[in-house]
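Sequence in, structure out. First:
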Amino acid sequence: MKVSKILTLIFFLAFGLMNVQTAFAQKDYELIMKELTTEQRELLQKEKELIKSNREALKKSLTKEQLRILADKKLNNVEKRSLLMKSFTKQQKTLVRRQEERLRNTRERFRKSLTDNQRKILKDRIERSRRDRKRNRDN
């Protein structure tokens, strides 16, 4: 087989696996959402929208140099994050810090809002889903 055909095959296999992983993540998400109260779902939806708008605000504030760091294929995600954090302005650092703080607080509020029964159901469903995926992978 020619090298180009092998590379094409590897690309399509990798792309297919990413789609499968995304589908499983979506399935876990749907399992979790079924067990939540309306208030809990609203909390998650509101936070999701806020995260998205904060991410957009940060993207708009990036300089050309920071965008080059993000686009650099030679860097892994840890290296990119480190270089970006070093290059951030005081305002950008504040935005990131506030977002991280908000995520921690939301996560904590969400955990506290779960009943013992919800925790058990969610844990069981996620574990079952992961076992099923592992079993399917092994077959």
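Second:
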Amino acid sequence: MKRAIALLLAAISGSATAQQAAEVPGDAQTWFETRVEAAAPLAPSLADLREEALFRARWSTTIQPCSAPPENLRLFGLRPAMADRLVTNGMLADAFLGAWTFYAETDCAETPLLRYMYVLEKDGSHVLMVVNRGETIATPSMMRETSAVAGADAFAAAKARQPDCDIKSVGMRAARIDATDPGLGPEIAGTRFTGGWSEIWAFRACQQDVEVHVRFDTDGRGGTTARIQNTRVVG
């Protein structure tokens, strides 16, 4: 077990991750703006997604801390997400027509806010998934990649206080936006092209609450570098 933990930590060690935007023809910002405009008539209706969103929430491991599955959702904040790298690659491969994210307020005190991603495929079918708890500016794919590094930091901080802790105890909870730079640019297709921001991601590890402070800086092309600034056990 100790060797497995060491290998995992070595594989995802380091305080920063960088995700470049997918390579697109011409100017990246213009390309994404054009795709957002073209896909606008295909955007889903949140009212039509309510029952499916509720079904996804009830079966998602994201809501495991809830004492009971949610019974009600309020969907809001639909926004284009074509700049998520996995979505962009699907559009370049002519497999996806577009993608959007939105939030849902739940009646679960432990998980009051969920973020979803809706991906429209070329054949007209779609995929709807819960991607995280809490509010974030990071794209779903950037968050997924960075959460591995953040989780490793959270585990290390918790294990320092409880040495016999198992890495299986690590779980990500809610994210929240901590601060935004004055120069943070507008959201375009789900990403930013200028400025930066910071978020605090909550984890549960070794029966302890841990907060990981993550700093994000844009690269001017739709990509982002994420850096772990500090990690602390809070309870």
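Remark: Residues 140-161 form the longest helix (22 residues).
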